[in-house]
Design brief:
The protein has 10 helices and 12 strands. By secondary structure, it is α+β, with helices and mostly antiparallel strands.
Length: 360
Amino acid sequence: MKLPKNFRQIGEAAGLTKIYIEDYVMTYLSAITKDSRTYVRGAILFGEIERVGSETYIFVNGAMEAQNIELDLDETVFDDEVWKKIYETKDQYFPQTQIVGWYLCRTGMSVRLNDKIKKTHFENFPGDGKVLYVRDPLEEEEAMYAYRGQDLVRQTGYYIYFVKNKEMQDYLIDVRQEQEAAISYEKMLAQKRDERIIRQSRRKLENKNKKGEHILQKTAAAAVAMFFLGATGTYLLFGQTGLPQTAIETFSDKIKQTSNGEKVKNDKGSVSAVFTTETSTKNETGNSATASTGEKKKETVNQSDNNLQTYTVQKGDTITKISIALFQSKKYVDEIMEANGLAESESIYPGQKLRIPAIK
């Protein structure tokens, strides 16, 4: 047996069992240890076991990741499919070796052995000289065990040796390429997933916009219907005079202002209020139809116990209409609103009692 010339001792490598781990193998195991995707990681160790007298020499010159160990040890299974994969890798990269043990990394779980770990070793890696290398990267601890005398015995130290290890180098190159391909594949899947999410979001937005346009069309149709209903009601209200032609021709402008440019207060854009204002303006020049309407409005004015006049709001009333009906002018709108504490943004409703100020 020829021992390696270049090596480094870790700990006190005393006793009858000497363990040598090649540097490339140790580098690979360290890379697995730093992988933060899982808390438990493992590898299968390849090499040779030689016995010289009472001493046993174990040389570890190859390793492959065992992803089945990423599960909890209670669920870790070394079935025929797993062993087939292990031996295929061994025959491809490490044909002149044998399985000499395994590596176990358990983050935050210490390097002490428990019954589950021992059971896994006894069932899958039996035989004298088979090793178990354990690490806990969180506590920065490691321990080397060797099977001897029906039990796993912790070693006091081991050796890292340096040789040309083309087999392990080839394996590392292929693993790196597989990892890069896997990363590229994951990026492709992520990109496709993002594109699909974008397409779904666009479709939802388009459907929402179409729904909004449909609702807007319905609202416009309802507004047109309300316009004609309001126009019909105003025609019935004014009876013999009918709707003023100028109000019909300038309907769109009347929604925001009256024919003389004065904004209607507290009318909330009512169609009938616009028409009433237009007709009531003509009343100041002697329209008899509005005067008769004003007489009807006066009938709703009552005297309170304190000689304060009140007016009961009728359907279709606005402050402007009430001012014109009671005082034959719309210039008393502010006085009526002030007497009732009304703001321009407030509306009145049928049956509401309004205080009517005494106008001199």
